[in-house]
Amino acid sequence: MKQVDLYTDGACSGNPGAGGWGAILIYKGVEKELSGGEASTTNNRMEIYAVIAGLDCLKERCKVNVYSDSAYTVNAFTEGWIYGWIKNGWKKADGKPVANAELWQRLYNKTLEHEVNFIKVKGHADNEYNNRCDALARAAIKKLEG
Fold first, then answer.
1. What cofactor does this protein call for (predicted)?
2. How far is CA 42 from the centre of its chain?
3. For 35, which of 23, 25, 101, 103 is 20 to 30 Å away at the CA?
């Protein structure tokens, strides 16, 4: 099975506001950069969407290490929150609906197609790929803001 690294980041100008996401897929030293955005969104939505977009590019089942500086995205899987949300019909422990449930559902379904390992990285530090993803996300926002 192919081993792929996926670095992701999301950003927002205002929260909510114009948002962007960036992702870099790396396979055997070959890098593919992706980015996009939405005119009115939140930082958390862009963080989740970046992972979905990266996983969408994979044409076959892969082992994927997802590197993200979003504790929200990483912890949903590493802390098992998402399994509780599914069990509770996409409701949090307090009974309120899970924010961004449709994106979480898409991401969860994508994780079933691959062997995915989520790894938290420190944002805006010395991780060159995380910094590049941040730059891609911010460039997507600039395009939206014209």
1. Mg(2+)
2. 13
3. 101
| Amino acid found at 56 | D
**Per 3-state DSSP, what percentage of the chain is helix, strand, and coil (rounded to 5)?**
40, 35, 25
Q: Rounded CA gap, 142 and 105, in Å? A: 29
List pLDDT tens digits, range 21-35: 999 999 999 999 999
- Which pLDDT tens digit goes with each residue over 78-129? 999 999 999 999 999 899 999 999 999 999 999 999 999 999 998 877 899 9
Answer yes or no: pTM beyond 0.85: yes
Rg (CA), the chain: 15
56 annotated as belonging to a binding site for a ligand = no
100, 40 in Cβ contact below 8 A?
A: no
Q: Please choose, from the candidates 31, 28, 70, the residue with its C-alpha nearest in 3D space to the C-alpha of residue 52.
A: 70
Residue whose C-alpha is closest to residue 110's, from 66, 45, 46: 66
Q: Which of 19, 47, 54, 114 is catalytic?
A: 47
For 13-32, give one letter per residue: b (16+ CB within 10 A) or e: beeebbbbbbbbbbeeeeee
